[in-house]
Amino acid sequence: MAGNVFGDPITDEDVKILYPEKTDITRKDRAEVAFLNMNSKGRDANAKTFVNNLKERYGNGISALCMIFNATGDTLTYAGKNDWHGHVYESPYPAKIQNGQWGAFLHVHPSWFAGSESAVIYRGYNGDAYLCDWLLSWGIPYVGDNHAYTEIREARHYETDHWDYIKGLLENQSTKHEDSWNGCYSIVTIGEGTSPEYVGIMTLDGVTK
To answer: Known PANTHER family for this protein (predicted)?
Structure first.
């Protein structure tokens, strides 16, 4: 397990423990059990401790304490990022986040007078095995209110340069945003202040209802 992912993966075996009568286990079944276990066995607390320790080592300055959760029923793979301002500190974006795991990282502002503003993309499957990209983005301006934005599109959508457009969407959002597309769902929130927690949940439609 990579050093910046937290929690044992949720597998078919975990579904069978909760629903012993199930025989044909689906991706959505695994997603639902992952969501139910989002805060179990200290997985969320360990992610929070990790990112707070990164912040302590980094010290003062604008930063986003990012924690993202996979409840899609399968592994999510890092598929790219775009930094408008700033960069990740010390620990990279998790390369893979298995179902039921948290990934954590610290994104910090550049050395000059600017905030932390970035987007990260993870690729995985919807309930029908169609590859999709989940985009999670945040903005902590040097002056002004914080923003959170998310959207989901087909795989490799973000290999085309949509970044100016997405930046505009991000900066028009408040501290919470959600999206639903092609059987996938995501929700993101960011706190107030110059070093807030940013939380993103990537899952399937209907799992969080």
So the answer is: 23 KDA JASMONATE-INDUCED PROTEIN-LIKE, OSJNBA0024J22.15 PROTEIN
